[in-house]
Write a structure and sequence with these properties.
Blueprint lengths: L2 H22 L6 H8 L4 H7 L2 H25 L4 H18 L1 H12 L3 H26 L3 H5 L2 H19 L6 H16 L18
Helix pairs in contact: 1-2, 1-3, 1-4, 3-4, 4-5, 4-6, 4-7, 5-10, 6-7, 6-9, 7-9
C-alpha cells in the first residue's frame, strides 16, 4: 500500500468512525461497522490504528483540531463578557448541529467503564482548558472578577459546565432547558460589567531625593 493510499484509508476510517459513533453509539460501534461505513476491510482498522478505541480517539482528535482552529478565530473577536457569552452559545449550537457533542458524549459515557479511555479523554481536555483560560485572561484579566474568580478556575468551571450540557442534551429532547441556561448567562453577563472593568494600576511612589 502506497503512502498516499494509506493516508486516504486512514482519513476514510476516521470519518467513518465519527459517523458510526454518532449514529450507532459506542455500544454498537465495532471494527466491522466502521469498516462497512468506510467501504474497506475491517482488518485495516487494526492495521492503521491498532484497535477501535484508538481509532475513535483519532476521530475525536480530528474533530477537535478543526473546532479549535475555527473557534480561535471566533473568540478573538470577543472583547467583553457579553460578547464571550454570545460566542460560547454559538459554539455550543455549532457543536450540537455538527455532531461533536454526540461524539464526545459517547466517549465520555464509555470511559466510565473503561479507565484507559478515561485517561485519554482527560488528556484531550487539557488543551481546551488552556484555550478557555487564555480567552478569559484576555477578556477579564486584571479585573475585579478575575481577582474573585481566577481565569484558570473559571476555565475548569466552563469545561465542567460544557461536559454537563453535553450529557444533558441527550435528555433534553427539545433543547429548551439547555437553551435557557445560555439565555440566563446572556442576562447575567451585562450585570457583571462593573466586575470586568480593568482599573489602571497605581504607580509606585517615587523615592525621595
Amino acid at each position: 500500500m502506497s503512502k498516499q493510499a494509506g493516508a486516504e484509508t486512514r482519513e476514510r476510517l476516521i470519518e467513518a468512525a465519527a459517523q458510526t459513533l454518532r449514529t450507532e453509539g459506542y455500544a454498537r460501534t465495532s471494527a466491522r461497522t466502521i469498516a462497512r461505513e468506510a467501504g474497506v476491510n475491517s482488518a485495516l482498522v487494526f492495521y492503521h490504528f491498532g484497535g477501535v478505541d484508538p481509532l475513535l480517539l483519532a476521530a475525536l482528535d480530528h474533530s477537535s483540531e478543526q473546532r479549535m482552529a475555527a473557534y480561535r478565530q471566533a473568540v478573538a473577536r470577543a472583547r467583553t463578557l457579553e460578547e464571550l457569552v454570545e460566542v460560547a452559545t454559538a459554539i455550543y449550537r455549532a457543536d450540537l448541529e455538527g455532531g461533536h457533542i454526540t461524539l464526545f458524549s459517547e466517549l465520555v459515557g464509555a470511559s466510565i467503564a473503561r479507565p484507559e479511555l478515561r485517561k485519554e479523554i482527560v488528556k484531550r481536555s487539557e488543551p481546551w482548558i488552556d484555550f478557555v483560560e487564555q480567552t478569559l485572561e484576555r477578556t477579564i484579566g486584571g479585573s475585579p472578577l478575575a481577582g474573585i474568580m481566577p481565569p484558570r478556575d473559571l476555565a475548569y468551571a466552563a469545561i465542567t459546565f460544557y461536559l454537563g450540557v453535553n450529557m444533558f442534551t441527550h435528555l433534553d429532547a427539545d433543547r429548551s432547558r439547555t437553551e435557557a441556561l445560555f439565555r440566563l448567562a446572556g442576562r447575567v453577563a451585562p450585570r457583571a460589567r462593573l466586575l470586568t472593568v480593568r482599573f489602571p494600576r497605581r504607580r509606585a511612589p517615587r523615592s525621595p531625593g
